[in-house]
């Protein structure tokens, strides 16, 4: 079946506008695919530059607040687990709800949640399978480099020539990794729809997803390019509300630190969290829209 790209784009928008509760599933689905950055940690310093003193202070801090540290770590792990579970359920809910809406069958938040729960384990298995394959491919060049370093060190020779020779090998593996990651990602995109809409298993869903990609790779490529353009435009548009809220938050934080005002700093943090929430909601709408688009693409390509 030939794809009508314009019709898919228009109908997908009509669906998420009519069923606005899909935005909620998009919000949670986006949380799982986004990835948070918790790399900003406090840095300790002393006037004397004595590292032993800093180490002692750190040990004292850990021993004093060990219970609190354990609680925070467990809390973050629980939140991460909850976000992952909610994201996978939301992905299944979006696929099932979009297909029902496309067929003009009953669709609701409750029904979508039930669909997500039903296929949770299979979608989780699909994600783990794709991740393990990519991890295996990444491990190969790492193992080669480690082996070369160990062999070179035991022979007492300089490692510079060996590492220089391994550079082309590393570039080849990076290219292979990129190609495999793209193929797996697209196959899993279709495979998740085979799982939810056709009841396929994890491996079977991935295999059928790859077969669909192989048979209709031109349509798939064109739709990815089209969605890339739409995503770029949406991203640029989202910069407007993000900057409108984020820049005042940054100004409040800087001004609060300069004035040593806890109230101003707290206000800046609150406004910053508001900016993140607004951007997350808007991003969730686009994630829901993108999921609906690919469900409609899948249905057209498979004549479901």
Task: Report the radius of gyration as a whole number of Å.
Answer: 25 Å
Report the strand count. Answer: 0
Which residue ranges are poorly predicted, with pLDDT under 50 across at least 5 consecutive positions?
35-51
Q: What does the overall shape look like?
A: globular
| Tally of individual helices | 10
Give the SSE order as H and E letters: HHHHHHHHHH
Structural class by SSE content: mainly alpha
Q: In whole angstroms, how far apart are the ends?
A: 11 Å
What oligomerization state is this entry in? single chain
What is the helix content?
over 70%
Residues in β-strands, percent: under 5%
Number of separate domains: 1
What is the average of the pLDDT values?
Answer: 83
Main sheet makeup: none
Structure description:
- By secondary structure, the protein is mainly alpha-helical.
- The protein has one domain.
- The protein contains 10 helices and no strands.
- The chain has helices at about 5-20, 20-35, 50-65, 65-100, 110-120, 120-155, 160-200, 200-215, 215-260, 260-300.
- Helix 7 (about 160-200) crosses helix 8 (about 200-215) and helix 9 runs antiparallel to helix 10 (about 260-300).
- Residues about 35-50 have low confidence and may be disordered.
SSE order and pairing:
Layout lengths: L4 H14 L3 H13 L16 H14 L1 H37 L6 H10 L1 H36 L4 H39 L3 H14 L1 H43 L2 H41 L2
Helix pairs in contact: 1-10, 2-4, 2-10, 4-5, 4-7, 4-10, 6-7, 6-8, 7-8, 9-10
